[in-house]
Amino acid sequence: KKVKGGRPPKEYHPEPPYDTYPGHCEGYNELKAIIERYPEANFMPPPSGYVCMTFMDNAFQGTDINIRLHLDGIEPACGFQNFNDGSADTDSCSVQVKKAMSCMSKSPDLMTSFYNSNVFLNDNPWAYVKYTSLNEDSTKDRIFFEDGNDFSMADNQFHAVVIYDKLGSGIGCGLLNSYYGYPGNPYNGYP
Questions:
Q1: For 25-84, how does the pLDDT look when each residue is reduced to its tens digit (9 = 90+)?
Q2: Mean of the pLDDT values across residues 115-140?
Q3: Band (8; pLDDT cuts 50, 70, 90)
Q4: pLDDT of residue 183
Q5: Can you say how many angstroms the Cα of residue 132 is from the centroid of all Cα atoms in its chain?
Q6: Cα(97)–Cα(132) distance, integer angstroms
Q7: CA-CA distance, 97 to 118, in Å (whole number)?
Q8: Is residue 12 within 8 Å of 80, Cβ to Cβ?
Q9: How many Å from the N-terminal Cα to the C-terminal Cα in the chain?
Q10: Share of the chain above pLDDT 70, in %
Q11: Which are the contacts of 83, defined by CB distance < 8 A and separation ≥ 6?
């Protein structure tokens, strides 16, 4: 039996081999967000890199999300040895899809997580999706988010992804988009 809203299983892979190939994260079932500075964030240097989400239908009427992060300039205090206990009392060291479809201003929608509230009654499932830093300021982490936010890939497309620091402040933001079939993509059609 699956429990929605519980802590998703986390796999720690310091160097995923697919992150070494340019142009990846452009499959038909993948969305990619190019991460830049969160509005009004003072975190220096600003984060850069990308977040890739692969959407996979599962047999239990949900959509699992495999999240891959390739980021520089993130919170060093989110290292594996400092990883919290997995509780969701704060947004610290988390990766969250938001209701907003813009990273231009710190709107209420940019501070509200995007998930099906009829399924996850009083619990933000994104607060459990925590990253770990590889070294002083980067990550190439993978997180398996079982059942995701109970929305499809199409529902998540164009929404903002926010990266949080150890204190739960937004430091990075980017919009999820599909790069499948994008001109110049050497992996067109690669699932």
A1: 777 889 999 999 999 888 777 888 999 999 987 766 668 899 998 888 887 778 764 554
A2: 84
A3: very low
A4: 53
A5: 12
A6: 18
A7: 17
A8: yes
A9: 29
A10: 72
A11: 93, 130, 132
- Cis ω for the linkage preceding 16 (within 30 of 0): no
Tracing tokens 């720690």 back to the chain, one arrives at 12
Q: Which residues on neighbouring strands pair with residue 177, listed in sequence order? A: 32
Q: Find where tokens 């999706």 sit.
A: 129
Q: What is the DSSP string of the chain?
A: ---TTSPPPEE--SS-GGGGSTT-S-STTEEEEEEEEPTT---SSPPEEEEEEEEEE-TTS-EEEEEEEEEES--GGGBGGG---S--SS-TTBEEEBS-S-SSS--GGGGSB-S-TTTSTT--GGGG-B--BSSSSEE--EEEETTTTS--HHHHTT-EEEEE-TTS-EEEEEE-B--TT-TT-TTTT--
Q: How far does CA 65 lie from the centroid of its chain?
A: 9
Angstrom distance (rounded) from CA 21 to CA 52: 14
**109 and 158 Cβ atoms separated by less than 8 Å:** no
CB 116 within 8 A of CB 150: yes
The one-letter code for the residue type at 170 is: G
